[in-house]
């Protein structure tokens, strides 16, 4: 076969099950937002001149970059837009990491980084997180001489653990390679958790964002990143010439501009997260980080994570089970609507009650 | 800086000028289709449930691949869909060509291939086309031992020259590396010019298609390719996990399904091409290949290509001028609407007449 040597044994990225859009299914397995995107999107498409699709899109998504520039108060030259964060991550590897070089990743983290590194023939050095899944910057720094890059997903997935701005600064002050900070879930964390402002001080920092989570727009592929002008210009040079659809650019801009709706949805998700956390604790689950639109939890009530997962699939409720080191006894649950979480909780409640009943003495 | 060594001196791909969508401009510089895409697209988007955008798209564009399978009578396992052909070309280089290996390209051809090869750190060996720009397969074969791949754009851009199926077969019978056959413009050539059916016989052939040209849909980024199951499975493994928007998948499918409209537009473009060719010849231009939705032509009437280009820009008419070897004395004109071509021709006519007048004796 014709494929390159280093790809022969590679398995592609494995995403959560994607059942067909269907009102009977409760889908809490891909950290999608339970609320629809802004209605401004539908309105603006009504006025869209479809004839325009016969022309190429703006190659650099000019208007969208300007919109992002205003919202985040960052210069346009420090902004790049990609066909999802996925494209940006691929481009970062393609543009900045030589083949057979090494990057550092905490374990566990978003598995796509390992997949993309392998595709790009870049080695990965995993640094185990602490028992509570917090990331130890000293451990990373003690290994960092071997690496030209460090990836931190913050809040981390699938743990929901947040590293403070201070700790990221500490890393940036010591490590002179590239630091990729993936803030896909940062909007769900407390205010002032983002390291976006640090791009002005650190020319080796790339901060990634996406419309997939907090903007309910994973159906369009739109990620963006912030970095020094030099880094952005390399990304522009190596990206596909027209990487984002005209309609996608338009939808993204409308989605971003509706700040009021964005904030309302964030608050709803955060409130549901608090409620879910409380209920899970009451049901005998240990819950990890509270900073994203999902919760990682471990049943400590005698139930097995995999059994709970399988049972819920039978009820048409999809959560995420990772059959891998340190995660196989845990479950990741995306924050759904209040009603979806009610249904989930009633099933979990039933399982826990049945389990307790099975320990009652027989008369 | 952090960029990889081989990228330091790379210049990115240079596309034609993309003036803002505007009725005062005649845009004949990017081989866009002069007719709008199928109106079925607008209709289907009216029924689209925008809430669906909160979910990830189909990772493999399942429904779209099935639609392509039916239209082209090719098995789904032999089809891949990308975020424009651009993404597919990038993935082919990423997946099949080792760094520092070499591929063969005719000269001139679509310059994006050279750019992507450089980005991917793959060497390019250019084989000069004959004086009339036809591609000499024997010359390619005599160099092919040094190469693991051959790229043929067919009809070639910017020449419009078509290689016959027989000649491509001859290449495939001799050359055992990967053959990338880019049929972006094939719909504008005569029937039975495509090599699509050859994928069943040759496991080293990739045939690329796009919705950008004959389907008037370059505003959405959608390319597809046909190849052996093994090649497709590698592309699936190394692509971004969700590479195409939900809406893009839907628009592409509707665009493809409207066969009647597709055929009507093709005929209109072909008729205008014949007319433009005749008129250009009458005006003292030599015209090259007649197989795509553009014509490459060389003024042999005393006018300079660059002067014509500059004059037309001042009239808000954009055609393409390539300041490179063997092309700097020529112009590439995309086929516009009948009316656009009328306006273009009246300006060319004026230039030619003025030129002739300047040679009249003074009384």
Description:
The structure is a homodimer of 363-residue chains. With 363 residues, the first copy, chain A, is of the alpha/beta class. Chain A folds into two domains: 5-35 and 260-357, Aspartate Aminotransferase, domain 1 (Alpha-Beta Complex), CATH 3.90.1150.10; 39-258, Type I PLP-dependent aspartate aminotransferase-like (Major domain) (Aspartate Aminotransferase, domain 2, 3-Layer(aba) Sandwich), CATH 3.40.640. Helices cover 36% and strands 15% of the residues of chain A. The first copy, chain A, has helices at residues 40-46, 62-72, 84-96, 112-119, 137-143, 165-174, 229-238, 246-257, 259-282, 305-314, 338-357, and strands spanning 26-27, 79-82, 102-107, 123-128, 149-153, 178-182, 205-210, 223-226, 285-287, 294-299, 317-318, 331-334. The radius of gyration of chain A is 21 Å and the shape is globular. The model of chain A has no long low-confidence stretch (mean pLDDT 95). At the A-B interface, helix 1, helix 3, helix 7 and helix 8 of A face helix 1, helix 3, helix 7 and helix 8 of B.
Question: Summarize this, please?
Answer:
2 copies of one chain form a homodimer. The first copy, chain A, is an alpha/beta fold and 363 residues long.
The CATH topology label of the largest domain in chain A is: Aspartate Aminotransferase, domain 2
- Report strand % of chain A: 5-15%
Residue-averaged pLDDT of chain A? 95
Helix content of chain A: 25-40%
């Amino acid at each position: 076969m014709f494929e390159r040597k280093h790809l022969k044994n590679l398995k592609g990225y494995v995403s959560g099950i994607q059942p067909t859009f269907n009102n009977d299914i409760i889908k809490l397995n891909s950290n999608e937002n339970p609320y629809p995107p802004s209605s401004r999107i539908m309105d603006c498409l009504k006025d869209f001149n479809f004839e325009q699709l016969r022309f190429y899109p703006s190659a650099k998504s000019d208007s969208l970059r300007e919109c992002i520039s205003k919202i985040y108060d960052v210069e346009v030259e420090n902004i790049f837009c990609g066909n999802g964060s996925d494209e940006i991550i691929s481009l970062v590897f393609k543009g900045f990491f030589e083949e057979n070089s090494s990057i550092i990743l905490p374990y566990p983290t978003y598995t796509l980084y390992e997949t993309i590194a392998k595709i790009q023939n870049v080695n990965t050095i995993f640094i185990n997180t602490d028992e509570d899944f917090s990331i130890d910057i000293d451990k990373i720094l003690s290994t960092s001489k071997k690496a030209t890059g460090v990836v931190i997903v913050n809040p981390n997935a699938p743990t929901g653990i947040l590293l403070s701005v201070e700790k990221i600064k500490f890393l940036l002050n010591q490590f002179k390679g590239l630091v990729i900070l993936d803030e896909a879930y940062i909007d769900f964390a407390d205010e002032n958790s983002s390291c976006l402002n640090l791009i002005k001080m650190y020319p080796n920092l790339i901060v990634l964002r996406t419309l997939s989570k907090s903007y309910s727009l994973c159906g369009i592929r739109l990620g963006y990143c912030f970095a020094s002008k030099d880094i952005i210009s390399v990304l522009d040079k190596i990206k596909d010439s027209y990487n984002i659809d005209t309609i996608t650019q338009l939808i993204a801009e409308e989605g971003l501009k509706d700040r009021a709706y964005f904030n309302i949805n964030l608050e709803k998700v955060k409130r549901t997260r608090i409620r879910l956390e409380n209920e899970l604790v009451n049901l005998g689950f240990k819950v990890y980080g509270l900073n994203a639109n999902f919760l990682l939890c471990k049943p400590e009530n005698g139930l097995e994570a995999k059994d709970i997962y399988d049972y819920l699939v039978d009820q048409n409720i999809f959560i995420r089970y990772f059959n891998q080191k340190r995660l196989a006894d845990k479950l990741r649950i995306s924050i759904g609507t209040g009603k979806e979480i009610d249904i989930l909780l009633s099933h979990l409640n039933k399982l826990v009650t049945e389990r307790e009943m099975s320990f009652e003495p027989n008369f």
